[in-house]
Design a protein that fits this description.
With 703 residues, the chain is of the alpha/beta class. The chain has 3 domains: 409 residues, Up-down Bundle (Na+/H+ antiporter like fold), CATH 1.20.1530.20; 119 residues, HUPs (Rossmann fold); 90 residues, Rossmann fold, CATH 3.40.50. Helix content is 61%, strand content 9%. The protein has a 10-stranded mixed β-sheet, with helices on both faces.
Length: 703
């Protein structure tokens, strides 16, 4: 049953998160919603009766990884100039949240009668102080996950994470004070109040010391490990050992984990490979953590909290925002911190839930749990649904959500990422700028033709341009071929745009009109009859894509020259060209196209040779030397930079490298349909995802 529960949590969390992303919502919101669907609020597939506490260990693992990850962002050098403001903000936002929640709850309980029969003024004071202390806590998990998702970084982000770390330390300490005060109010004196304060500081100090020693030990171990797998295994073992030791000693594993991360990132060597190694382990743990948290949010049970839960939620947010503003003014923090940092403290979950469990287990305070538990869970529900949006809003308005910059540019046009991609592949989004380089000198007499199949009027000039570039390389002429149905009337200016484009490049244009009921057979006939040196086809901007693939397969299978497919995207530029290959055979296939492009204007040509991860460094160096040797042996040389890239995903590596380039050139084999179905085509897959203009070269089969 546990295995099925894990599968359901992972699958549902991922599915709902992807749906939320389509509506520009953070992934963590989707995880929590998925958990609510699986839990008592939805289909009730995951509950305490079905899985018990068997999945709780995932929560402990996630909290340690989350707290350790927060430590990575707390670089003391960056925060040194903001120490004063961070200290004031931490103190003021904690104080204001405590006061706002305590006062709001007291007023609501005392004057509306939302309590248990027989409660007196002291009970109202006790429950108000306890809820005020719980209201201090924030959810580092949601905050960190959103920050990673939007790739946020900078002084604002570092300040936010430092405040989150301080916040939870203060919450744990002040909660201890509130417990002691509540005991005194109830007549259960226990330890003197000053001892409670001293014990709170001692617990925080011990938690930090444990984390410091763990961080130093991680640094020592890290120096002796080389592979990412070893780092992940060793690092995870030490962090989980730290977590369990903290729980055994009744210390804060969150503070210990944060301290370990802070120590590691602030060492003189600043080796962050441990963080990167653990990053590959975190995603499924995070999905389980948040989705499982969602299953604990029972809307039916929360309804009992009513107005008090809403008051608690609103008072906490108002206290946080106003406390940050007050602290920022006193500490003279930047305006972005004053205005937006409070919104980054809205999330609340794990620590708060842990504190209400402590209240439930305290025999003196047990009677308050029936009110406190649904109130806090109501606040957690609202905070976890709204909190991630608030964090994204905060870092975005502060100008540090770097991962959203491109999305913002797209949204200026009122388009979603998917709509923008479709637009830039369409007739409205593709733009062929006029030819501005020097005119070319045609070969007279010519040594043949390069045929291009005239297509949509938007890209026909682009096809004419590439055909002329290749014709210049082969010392021949570009030829525009149109296939028309027999008996169809022919327009008077059929080849006007092609003629204008080719003329602007200094070349004459050959044209041919072929009557044929089949576009594919007509193109094949035109190519073979004219003994073409190359065929250039344009990927369709509209219409049925499958029909184009049929034309492409027929032409590629029946002509004896290279076929180049041009997939246009946005504005056509060719100054920076990327050439990904996985073998020297690939390079040999695309090399003529690369040489043709190199003859025209000023280009930056970059070759990336893709190897799978795990290869020895000596092999990488040998492969780079082999490629350079191959290039040096060519009769016609190209100024081509060589870079060997190690990757677990060829497609992802190409997409990441291509971000800095205008044009990508790749080779594709003329493989059979069945073989392509089982083994795929790298170029075809890249072309579907790549947001750059692309040339796909289909070389003739070797006899």
């Amino acid at each position: 049953m546990v295995t099925l529960g894990v599968a359901l949590l992972l699958a549902a969390g991922l599915l709902v998160a992807k749906i939320c992303q389509r509506f520009h919502l953070p992934s963590v919101t989707g995880y929590i919603l998925a958990g609510m669907l699986l839990g008592p609020s939805g289909f009730d597939l995951i509950n305490r009766q079905s899985i018990g506490s068997d999945l709780d260990h995932f929560t402990h693992i996630a909290l340690m990884l989350i707290s350790f990850g927060i430590g990575e962002h707390v670089e003391l050098k960056k925060l040194r100039e903001h120490v004063r403001s961070v200290a004031w903000i931490g103190i003021c936002e904690a104080f204001c949240a405590f006061v706002f929640v305590s006062v709001a709850v007291f007023v609501t309980v005392h004057f509306t009668g939302v309590d248990i029969d027989g409660w007196q003024l002291r009970d109202h004071l006790a429950i108000s102080l306890l809820l005020g202390a719980v209201g201090l806590a924030t959810a580092p998990a949601a905050t960190l996950l959103v920050i990673r998702e939007v790739k946020a970084s900078g002084s604002f982000t570092a300040t936010l994470l430092a405040i989150v770390a301080i916040d939870n330390g203060l919450a744990i300490m002040i909660f201890g004070f509130a417990i002691s005060i509540a005991h005194h109010i109830m007549g259960q004196l226990g330890d003197p109040f000053y001892l409670v304060i001293v014990k709170g500081f001692i617990d925080i100090g011990q938690s930090l010391i444990l984390g410091v020693f763990t961080g130093i030990l991680l640094d020592v171990v890290l120096r002796r490990l080389k592979s990412q797998g070893e780092m992940m295994t060793g690092g995870l073992a030490l962090l989980l050992l730290c977590s369990e030791l903290a729980r055994y000693l009744e210390l804060s594993s969150l503070l210990a984990g944060m301290a370990a991360g802070v120590i590691l990132v602030n060492r003189a060597e600043r080796d962050v490979r441990m963080f990167r190694a653990l990053n590959s382990f975190e995603p499924p743990i995070y999905v389980l953590f948040f989705t499982l948290a969602g299953t604990h949010l029972d809307i039916k049970a929360l309804g009992a909290a009513g107005i008090l839960g809403t008051i608690y939620f609103l008072a906490r947010i108002v206290g946080k925002i106003n406390g940050v503003a007050l602290g920022a003014r006193i500490g003279q923090a930047p305006q972005a911190v004053l205005r937006y940092l409070g919104f980054g403290l809205v999330p609340q979950a794990g620590v708060a839930i842990g504190l209400i469990f402590l209240i439930s287990s305290d025999l003196v305070l047990t009677e308050y749990a029936s009110i406190i538990t649904p109130v806090v869970l109501t606040g957690v529900l609202f905070s976890e649904l709204i909190g991630p949006l608030a964090v994204r809003f905060a870092v975005s308005r502060a100008g540090e959500a770097h991962g959203l910059n491109e999305e913002k540019l797209r949204e200026e046009n009122g388009l979603s990422p998917l709509q923008n991609d479709i637009h830039l592949r369409s007739a409205q989004g593709v733009e062929i700028l006029p030819w501005t380089w020097v005119k070319l000198s045609p070969q007279i007499p010519s040594q043949g033709v390069v045929v291009f199949g005239a297509a949509h009027h938007t890209i026909v000039s682009g096809l004419a341009r590439f055909a002329t570039i290749f014709a210049n390389f082969y010392r021949c002429l570009p030829m525009a071929v149109r296939v028309v149905q027999p008996g169809t009337a022919v327009p008077t200016k059929l080849f006007q745009k092609e003629l204008e484009e080719v003329a602007s490049m200094g070349y004459p244009l050959a044209t041919e009109l072929i009557p044929d009921s089949s576009v594919a057979s007509g193109l094949v006939a035109g190519v073979e009859y004219n003994a073409a040196k190359m065929v250039v086809l344009g990927y369709p901007l509209h219409g049925t894509v499958s029909s184009f693939h049929e034309v492409l397969e027929t032409v590629a299978a029946n002509v004896s020259c290279p076929v180049v497919v041009v997939r246009f995207f946005g504005v056509l530029h060719t100054e920076r060209i990327l050439v990904p290959v996985v073998s020297l055979e690939d390079l040999e296939e695309v090399y003529p196209v690369v040489m043709a492009l190199d003859l025209i204007g000023e280009h930056h040509l970059q070759l990336i040779y893709l190897l799978h991860s795990g290869e020895a460094d000596s092999l990488l160096q040998a492969k780079e030397a082999e490629v350079n040797q191959w290039l040096a042996a060519r009769e016609k040389k190209v100024d081509l930079s060589v870079k060997v890239v190690v990757t677990d995903s060829r497609v992802q590596a190409i997409l990441e490298e291509a971000e800095e380039y205008d044009l990508v050139v790749m080779g594709a084999t003329r493989t059979q349909v069945i073989k392509k179905f089982f083994f795929g085509s790298l170029a075809d897959t890249v072309s579907k995802k790549l947001q750059k203009t692309m040339l796909i070269v289909y070389m003739p089969d070797k006899v």
